[in-house]
Specification:
The protein contains 13 helices and 21 strands. It is extended, with a radius of gyration of 37 Å. The strands form five sheets. Strands 10-9-20-17-12-13 form a six-stranded antiparallel β-sheet. Strands 16-15-14-11-18-19 form a six-stranded antiparallel β-sheet, with no helix packed on it. Among the domains are: 183 residues, Rossmann fold, CATH 3.40.50; 140 residues, Tumour Suppressor Smad4, CATH 2.60.200. The chain is an alpha+beta fold. It comes from Sexangularia sp. CB-2014. This is NAD(+) kinase. Belongs to the NAD kinase family. One of its GO terms (molecular function) is ATP binding. InterPro entries: ATP-NAD_kinase_N, ATP-NAD_kinase_PpnK-typ_C, NAD/diacylglycerol_kinase_sf, NADK.
């Protein structure tokens, strides 16, 4: 146990320990058989943690598979994956207790007493679900975490970068040291609740991958939360709440609240207010060495609710506080590409970042077709409206490919009006145009008088229209 604490104090999980730095564990006894891997000089420069390649010292023996909850469609893919791993590598497969009870009964699992020691039991983790499944896996490990391979079976898939359709070739690459290891920082969250004598009555610790949220919960009042950074008063949050997130969580709830998108290799704590009362209250980013404390003042009008990666946490009473800092134990995610390639690909395919239609050249095929269609429409209109026609001419009313329904209706009205006018001129009568028919009755009478003075003796407009119909 002392040897494990010394190894963990370097800030890197057992799964990615500094095997190249002998001074870290010099003189320490052999630790429980666990994952045998290293990732370059990971203990030498934390600035390059995210740009490492996964390399195994010995083949993984114990693999844990986590399935998306209540999804029977994953039974067949799980059996395919299990059978292939066992037959090819001879590994032992474990499943999470919920899946062993609901989906795949009879599979090996672990007991609640063994859960705190999962990092010593498991060499590799495989998730079959979405981002929520990965968040659930992160919450199980309070300290070190084995490498995680996330196959996408979710609706979003921002963190699940592997395609299950290629799981054979993908896992072969992973076992043959041909994959990347992206270390995603987590937050260490401590919730301190006080009793009536201002003495700590309960202290709870959590590891958070995306964000911790402190909001007004079910209270109808606006939350008032005092924020401190490195024990120095920062501000009082007058809003619905505040989000403290990691760079990994910057594309989750924080982004919806107006926060920035931050590269996962950047170490820092994002401070994003939720619907703030002041429009000048904008999100900020604190360095990774900062310790942020959110405290509910004694004058608060209501309680506050803590939410950790979407899971409901403790309720804060006046005087309680939440202390947040960067965790020393990141989540090692196995990825086919580096963290920059993976992140930019997720922005483009999942969030459609800056996805817009590109402006085309005026000589492109689409613009050429648009101009040609306009030219054909103009020629058709000129053919309909142009010049006088001989009496009794036959007009082709068949629609062309470029005419729309409205264009055909307009053309039909014009043809019908001209035929009526030509017939009336030949018979010596006056045809009433649709424009005249839509005028008020007294204006229609005056217009009819101008066109046919011989109808001035008619007493009513109905007499005029009757005469015109029988002419």
């Amino acid at each position: 146990g002392e040897a494990m604490d010394r190894r963990r104090s370097c800030g890197v999980a057992d799964a990615v320990c500094d095997a190249t730095d002998a001074s870290c564990t010099e003189g320490a006894p052999e630790v429980v058989q666990t994952t045998r891997l290293y990732a370059g000089a990971i203990g030498q420069a934390t600035a390059h943690l995210a740009e490492t390649r996964l390399s195994w010292e010995s083949q993984p023996r114990n693999i844990a598979i986590f399935l998306r909850r209540a999804t029977k469609e994953l039974i067949e893919p799980f059996e395919m994956l299990r059978d292939w791993l066992v037959s090819r590598y001879g590994v032992r497969i474990f499943v999470d207790p919920a899946a062993a009870e609901e989906l795949v009964p009879g599979e090996a699992t672990w007991t609640p007493e063994q859960r705190p020691h999962l990092a010593d039991m498991i060499d590799l983790i495989i998730t079959m679900g979405g981002d929520g499944t990965l968040l659930f896996v992160s919450s199980l490990f309070e300290r070190s975490v084995p490498p995680v391979v996330a196959f996408n079976f979710g609706s979003l898939g921002f963190l699940t970068t592997w395609d299950f359709g290629k799981f054979r070739s993908s896992l072969t690459r992973i076992f043959e040291d041909q994959s990347h290891l992206n270390l995603r920082r987590r937050l260490h969250v401590t919730v301190v609740q006080f009793d009536e004598g201002d003495r700590p009555s309960q202290v709870s610790e959590y590891q958070v991958l995306n964000e911790v949220v402190v909001d007004r919960g079910s209270s109808p009042y606006m939350a008032g939360i005092d924020a401190y950074v490195d024990s120095q008063y920062c501000t009082t949050v007058a809003a619905d709440g505040v989000i403290l997130s990691t760079p990994t969580g910057s594309t989750a709830y924080s982004l919806s609240a107006g926060g920035p998108m931050v590269h996962p290799a950047v170490t820092g704590v994002l401070f994003t207010p939720i619907s703030p009362h002041s429009l000048s209250f904008r999100p900020v980013v604190f360095p990774d060495r900062s310790v942020v404390r959110l405290q509910l003042p004694q004058s608060a009008r209501g309680d506050a609710q803590v939410t950790l990666d979407g899971r409901v946490g403790p309720t804060l009473r006046p005087g309680d506080c939440v202390v947040v800092s960067i965790s020393a134990f990141p989540l090692p995610c196995v990825a086919p590409l580096s963290d920059t390639h993976t992140w930019l690909a997720s922005l483009a395919t999942v969030l459609h970042w800056n996805d817009r239609r590109k402006q085309e050249s005026l000589t492109s095929a689409s613009y050429t077709e648009t101009i040609a269609a306009a030219r054909r429409a103009g020629e058709a209109e000129q053919a309909i409206d142009g010049g006088a026609r001989e009496d009794g001419a036959v007009f082709d009313s068949s629609p062309t490919a470029s005419e729309s329904l409205d264009d055909r209706k307009t053309a039909d009205r014009r043809r019908g009006t001209r035929r009526d006018r030509d017939k009336a001129a030949a018979d010596g009568t006056v045809a009433r145009s649709p424009a005249v028919a839509r005028r008020p009755r007294h204006r229609r009478r005056a217009a009819a008088m101008e066109q046919a003075p011989e109808l001035a003796c008619a007493e009513t407009i109905d007499d005029i229209e009757s005469f015109m119909r029988h002419a």
